[in-house]
Write a structure and sequence with these properties.
The chain is built from five helices and twelve strands. It is α+β, with helices and mostly antiparallel strands. The protein binds biotin.
């Protein structure tokens, strides 16, 4: 059972723990659909049987070794076309957390993968429900690899693999929740531009010449930023092109 001892105003005050579920995002969405749930509510599990990732991928995590949870937010102050600002805020919360644990080796791989030493340690899946032009609710799902020692994916890592230390999951969860609330409150109080700048400062491959693939074409390009709706701006032979999440991949 998880205790959330986070020093927060509203995030993590209501917690649903289930030993096992398909996906904490799915479960939280179902709960929020049935009855009104408070902002900041957290659903956490020891084991997901159908963890979901971005682009329709799955999310694998060994039961009991990692943190897999979802948070209910109600960023009704955000216009639908500014929803990427929430991605920015949550990504920065993860960067704050990782930097506090693993020193300065963490980057955000656009749009919201967290890398440590070039390997993925955290995934974020944000699912927004819109009401007219605004966001009505967001389910923010976070998977953080903590004590797992082996991964099938070669480019994955965990806090244990990076430091050789075992971590107490409830302590790490509390700290992570504090980081998310701090960045969310920063967004809510109108600091989207500062957040955006910090996001760019922590972006993997920014301003570096690197290899990408788009539409079957491999090219050398330079990430120059992210536009208002979250498309990646990449300079390719003097011209800047903007890519959505399914339109470009990074070649390592
Ligand atoms: C990704 O990088 O593809 C996103 C992975 C997100 C995984 C988390 S684990 C908790 C929450 N529940 C899910 O089914 N997915 C997210």
């Amino acid at each position: 059972m998880y205790k959330i001892l986070a020093n927060t105003l509203f995030l993590g005050k209501n917690v649903v723990f289930v030993p096992e579920c398909h996906s904490t995002n799915t479960l939280l969405m179902e709960l929020a659909q049935k009855t009104q749930q408070p902002e900041g509510m957290v659903v956490i599990t020891r084991a997901q049987t159908k963890g979901r990732g971005q682009r329709g991928n799955g999310w694998e995590a060994e039961p009991g070794q990692n943190i897999t949870f979802s948070i209910l937010l109600k960023p009704q102050f955000l216009n639908a076309n500014a929803q990427f600002n929430l991605t920015i805020a949550v990504s920065l919360a993860l960067i704050d957390f990782l930097k506090s644990r693993l020193a300065d080796r963490s980057f955000i791989k656009w749009p919201n993968d967290l890398l440590v030493n070039g390997k993925k340690i955290t995934g974020i899946l944000i699912e927004n429900t819109l009401a007219g032009e605004n966001i009505q609710q967001s389910v923010v799902g976070i998977g953080l690899n903590v004590n797992q020692r082996q991964f099938t994916a070669p480019a994955a890592t965990s806090m244990f693999l990076e430091t050789g230390h075992e971590y107490d999951l409830s302590i790490e969860l509390s700290s992570l929740i504090e980081c998310v609330e701090r960045r969310y409150l920063q967004l809510r109080s109108g600091h989207a531009n500062d957040l955006r700048q910090e996001y760019l400062n922590n972006l993997y491959w920014i301003n570096e010449e690197q290899q990408f693939v788009s539409n079957g074409r491999r090219f050398t390009g330079t990430i120059e930023g992210v536009d208002a709706v979250g498309k990646l701006a990449v300079r390719d032979q003097g011209q800047i092109n903007y890519f959505g999440i399914k339109e470009i991949s990074f070649v390592r």
